Amino acid sequence: MGNEQARFGIGVVGAGMGAKPHALALKALRDKVDVRGVWRRDRQELERFCSEYDLPAARSYEALLADPAVEAILIITPPNAREPLVAAAAAAGKHVLMEKPVERSVEAAERIVGICDAAGVTLGIIFQHRFRAASMALAEKVAGGTLGPLHAAQLLVPWWRSQEAYYDKPGRGTFAQDGGGVLITQAIHSLDLMLSLTGPVRAVTALSATTGLHRMETEDFVAGGMEFANGAVGGLMATTANFPGGPESLTLNFERASATLTGGNLTLNWMDGRSETIGEASLGGGGADPMAFPFDWHQAQIEDFILAVHQGRPPRSTGHTALNVHRLIDALIRSGREGRRVEVLQGG
């Protein structure tokens, strides 16, 4: 009985494609997490999902919010459905852990963050790439200053999504549902990880396009230059038109070493001739199967969120940190559309 009371009560909203790693993570965390119910409008799909992952189905979203054992709501819906769900959760005093992106536009994302701030509830955003062992090892080294100042960065996201299996699904690659293309839907993970290691970008000059490989409303290719606030420079290329798809990579050139994150690997090449590798290679969802990655990164992020709530501290990935990547994406898209250098808005 005591152990049951000690578990963290979570209600889940959304049970589509993106819910699989969350479901597996929650099953692995059963000694710490009590899933009070899963809710989705499509009752048939909800029952199928709950049966597959042995999770309880909720009668309604209102029932989850009324459950005093629910401490937080995990929202895994498309971004166009988020704001009323978050507002209702915050009004009920429930903390919120939500899939990326926060919303489809910077303005809508700012509203959601403001709603949670005003209600005094914790808002965490799922950016599981921060929770890879290699990413955390590099973050520790950057924070410790052993690599020296950053001078240059290179980010590559050479992914593939097929027209038939991905973009032909209703709403995919549209502004109405997704808010954008490759940047806000796929590369946002790598961009968030980059910003967590480099600090903010001051300005960008970009090219964005939709290649002939896809029929979609939004962009499937973006390339650009970045000027970081600390004086470093960088370049990026992100696409879902690179068949058959490969792992994303981030290279940071510091004063004393270069660091490269490729999938789940960190390679450090020191200027004095030393080299070291941390982590292990893993699939990252860059190919035809968007869900081809382990669930342990999600598990680590859910655990961090629970600990943050218990300790009264911000989680590693918050609504406010997520706004940084939203503003960067907005600047990249505007630069590509307008053909000019664009400064990145910085939050207060």
UniProtKB/TrEMBL annotation:
Instruction: Give start-end ranges for the coiled-coil region(s).
Output: none
What InterPro entries has UniProt attached to this entry?
Answer: Gfo/Idh/MocA-like_OxRdtase_N, Gfo/Idh/MocA_Oxidoreductase, GFO_IDH_MocA-like_dom, NAD(P)-bd_dom_sf
Q: What are the GFO/IDH/MocA-like oxidoreductase domain coordinates in residue numbering?
A: 137-258
In terms of superkingdom, the source organism counts as Bacteria
Question: GO MF terms on file?
Answer: nucleotide binding
Q: Which residues form the Gfo/Idh/MocA-like oxidoreductase N-terminal domain?
A: 8-125
Could you tell me which PANTHER family the record lists for this protein? D-GLUCOSIDE 3-DEHYDROGENASE, UDP-N-ACETYL-2-AMINO-2-DEOXY-D-GLUCURONATE OXIDASE
Q: What is this protein called?
A: Oxidoreductase
Q: Which organism is it from?
A: Devosia chinhatensis
